[in-house]
Design a protein that fits this description.
This protein is an all-alpha fold. Helices cover 75% and strands 0% of the residues.
Length: 235
């Protein structure tokens, strides 16, 4: 079966209509840029503060919105119809992720602008943002497959927001609690490490380890998502 952009576009348009009608979900895209604007006006411009805002954007927009879009399909009993349609698994997952990807990148861009964040190498940061967005969309899709309603999705996503928005603040305690060293390999911490290197003048070559670790997370989360998605097709 060939990849059909027409089917992907149809899923994208449907998601946009569903998203624009659900004000409770669509309102969250304004939360992070507003927070970034407040931080920017307060003169909070260090990397830790910037990336707390950006990591919150990933969790709140990429993961929560994606979880809600999948959960809404299940709530309306339309997801199964989509699964059994002529569209392939790749077309459905890509189409269901495209709107969230576009919104997340826009929210990150506006947040960076309002927070007055000007990275030394914008191309490295944009690629890192895009790769991280794919990872968080993967989490959102996976959680969405386990939820039955948008309300349930709102609760299920809370640990993700806590761990990935504020988890980097516990890494200084790793000397006392060695178990916390595992946090160093989390994508949110890797992104902060990458951004710190970029501010010191690093390019793509210097950030390959960070990109590699985040990419491994992307592969793992989407492998799990595809397995659960195909299991839901035959349940």
């Amino acid at each position: 079966m060939t990849f059909s952009w027409k089917r992907v576009n149809a899923i994208l348009v449907k998601d946009y209509k569903d998203f624009s009608r659900n004000l409770a979900v669509s309102a969250v895209i304004f939360m992070v840029p507003i927070m970034a604007a407040i931080f920017g006006r307060m003169g909070v411009t260090n990397i830790a503060a910037h990336y707390m805002v950006f990591n919150m954007a990933f969790a709140v927009v990429a993961t929560y919105v994606q979880t809600s879009l999948i959960a809404e399909e299940k709530e309306k009993s339309t997801l199964r119809g989509l699964m059994l349609s002529p569209a392939s698994t790749l077309e459905i997952l890509f189409g269901k992720s495209l709107l969230t990807f576009i919104m997340t990148m826009l929210v990150l861009g506006f947040s960076a602008y309002f927070a007055d964040y000007r990275p030394q190498n914008i191309l490295v940061i944009v690629v890192a943002f895009a790769l991280s967005t794919v990872f968080y969309i993967g989490i959102g899709t996976l959680l969405g497959l386990f939820t039955k309603s948008v309300m349930e999705a709102s609760v299920l996503v809370l640990p993700v927001i806590g761990v990935f928005s504020f988890g980097s603040f516990v890494t200084p305690f790793a000397e006392k609690y060695p178990i916390l060293k595992v946090m160093d390999y989390f994508p949110n911490v890797q992104l902060i490490d990458l951004a710190t290197k970029v501010e010191a003048g690093a390019g793509f070559g210097d950030a390959l380890v960070n990109f590699g670790i985040i990419f491994v997370w992307v592969i793992v989360i989407f492998a799990l998502t595809v397995v659960i998605y195909r299991k839901r097709m035959v349940d």
